[in-house]
Amino acid sequence: MIFSNMVLIPKCKSRVILFLWLLGIIALLNGSAVEARIRRYKWEVKYEYKSPDCLRKLVITINGRTPGPTITAQQNDTIIVELTNSLLTENVAIHWHGIRQIGTPWFDGTEGVTQCPILPGTTFKYQFVVDRAGTYLYHAHYGMQREAGLYGSIIVGLPDGKSEPFTYDYDRNIILNDWYHKSTYEQAAGLSAIPFQWVGEPESLLIHGRGKFNCSTLITPSLDAGICNATNPDCEPFRLIAVPGKTYRLRISSLTALSALSFQIEGHNMTVVEADGHYVEPFVVQNLFLYSGETYSVLVKADQDPTRNYWITSNIVGRSAPKTPPGLGVFVYYPNHPRRSPPTTPPPPPLWNNTDPRLAQSHAIKARQGYIHTPPSRSDRVIVFLNTQNTINGNVRWSVNNVSFALPHTPYLIALKENLTHVFDQNPPPDGYDFQNYDIRIVQENKNATSSNGVYRLNFNSTVDIILQNANSMILNTSETHPWHLHGHDFWVLGYGEGKFDMFNDPMKYNLVNPIMKNTVPVHPYGWTALRFRADNPGAWAFHCHIESHFYMGMGVVFAEGIDKVGKLPSSIMGCGETQGLYRP
Question: Plastocyanin-like domain: which residues (predicted)?
């Protein structure tokens, strides 16, 4: 006999009670595990010399790495990143690309829109919930720092006990990028100069931070002989080890500064199953086209001859006769030696100027049956964004409806919440352009081009349609592909078209049955793309071309919605413009 609360209990019964009590504790612990976790990261951001493509240059690293550490979490987890800025003479901010920041608009990480930049020598804490499973990104959102190496992946899994509508054996992550040898400062100075100095084409393409620049092409006599070293381990090709017969989920993302890309694995088909965190009705490709800011999951089965290895390639498409060599990696069949090169030459890329297969892929991306989020049947407001290139006071600028975007010194979210109406233009930008008379296929003078930092104010919970209309740039017979990214939301992709959008007939062709939801979408040359979203996330949100130089040159807008519903702003986002002294910690 033993005592329990002064009651005599037989020993066998006491063991049963103890066992049941332990089961209850375990259940509670398991229950808390199924619920949200807190995942903490401590990052130091600083410049270091690296050789991603064999040429040594200063890059921005996170804890010594580029790409930075991958954030892994489960749906509804809380992510806490304590970021210390050790850049010494440079501010920083990091955007969590694809994370909607519901309830935390101040941690979106967009300098000038949602926060002041993080000053050198200071530590800033980002804290947010990852509310949906999928493949996402993070990257710098200050100046043009993203292309200096400050980027990485966010992988969010389903809660325990839930499964995805496809199966695979292994999960791998690949970020594609282009790489410049000039610093972002040199590039920005050229873009702002009179006369204009374009950044040019990238020197290399990187596959998960690794590329190969031809060091023999360096002809500058004064160049340090050791600055480009083809044997540097930093630029060993990316290798993916595959077990024969196994199926791999490859999470493939693009964070290029300029380039649209095609991606392929020699001799292997890829089945597309996810785009920007949403399940796709599966379709098979041999070339996957990616635009900056997009993420995809594809399934690849290692079902080819296992006695050899295969090329992984990325190539530039959509830009005139690309001079940048392909990015090369190796799909290694275990147990072949990882350094064994494939016995073939890399497969040829798609024709750079053939838009048909790229448009076909855009049309093929539909929401998977059983995972369709039906869009509202109609919108409350339609805004047409004409993508134009202009000259304003001698500077070459990108513009939307002939208005080039400029960030104010006081972030929009703070100015709107505190009613600081004098810190940015209160006149709203235009909802459209001269549809009838504007010829999208010729070089326009665009004499009425202006610069503004005004915002689009959206009625809270309203449904908004955005029509992205592409046009000729200032170069004859040139219309560039622009990938547009929306912060704080996903949108339904209702359709794509060629030529000028017809506001009377084209809406009748919208896909309202199974449109995919995304956060980044291309508008193809001389074409249009139609989007729909709900303005249901209180905050100030950027919507912009994801090409670094284009956004720097003014190709973007800001939406404001439900500002009265935004909670108390944290003091940590203050400190610039007229926010200095606004709050005390």
Answer: 45-156, 174-334, 441-562
Neighbours of 64 (CB within 10 A): 11
DSSP per residue over 535-578, as a string? Answer: --S-EEEEEEE-SHHHHHTT-EEEEEE-GGG--PPPGGG--SGG
Edge-to-edge strand ranges of the sheet holding 71-74:
71-74, 151-157, 134-140, 94-97
**Tokens linked to 34:** 């199924």
Q: What structural domains and CATH numbers belong to the chain? A: 36-163 (2.60.40.420), 165-371 (2.60.40.420), 381-568+575-582 (2.60.40.420)
The pair of structure tokens assigned to 419 is 């009613």
Q: Are 133 and 156 in contact (CB under 8 A)?
A: yes
Tell me the C-alpha distance between 220 and 201, whole Å: 19
Question: What is the pLDDT, as a whole number, of residue 26?
Answer: 39
Please give the pLDDT value at position 135: 98
Return the ∠ at Cα 137 (arms to 46 and 163), rounded to 5°.
140
Contact 178, 276 (CB under 8 A): no
CA 472 to chain centre: 25
Phi, psi of 442 (to 5 degrees): -125, 160
Letter string b/e over residues 213-234, b meaning 16 or more CB atoms within 10 A of that residue's CB: bebeeeeeeeeeeebbeeebeb
Q: Are 362 and 522 in contact (CB under 8 A)?
A: yes
DSSP 129: E
Q: Rounded to two decimals, what is the model's pTM? A: 0.92
Residue type, 373: H
Burial 121-150 (b: 16+ CB within 10 A, else e): eeebebbbbbebbbbbbbbbbbbbbbbbbb
- CA separation (Å) from 482 to 92, 197, 546? 25, 20, 7
Beta strands in 131-203 (DSSP E): 134-140, 151-157, 170-179
Q: Position of tokens 């720092």?
A: 145
Beta strand 403-405 pairing with 450-452 = parallel
Identity of residue 546: H
Angle at 500 between CA 495 and CA 503, to 5 degrees: 65
Token readout for 574 is 């203050």
Compute the distance between CA of residue 532 and CA of residue 521 in angstroms, rounded to an integer.
Answer: 12
Instruction: Give CA–CA dist 543/57, Å, rounded.
Output: 31
pLDDT for res 327: 97
Q: Which pLDDT score is estimated for 15? A: 47
Question: What are the mean pLDDT values of the chain's consecutive 10-residue runs (585 residues total)?
Answer: 36 43 41 70 98 96 97 98 97 98 98 97 98 98 97 97 97 98 96 96 97 80 73 94 98 98 98 98 98 98 98 94 91 96 96 94 98 97 96 94 96 96 95 94 87 97 98 93 98 97 96 98 97 98 98 97 97 93 58
Strands (DSSP E) along 318-380, which ranges?
327-333
Among candidates 511, 519, 516, which has minimal Cα distance to 487?
519
Strand bridging mode 381-392 / 395-400: antiparallel
Going by C-alpha positions, the residue among 78, 110, 116 that lies closest to residue 97 is 110
In the prediction, which pLDDT does 322 show? Answer: 79
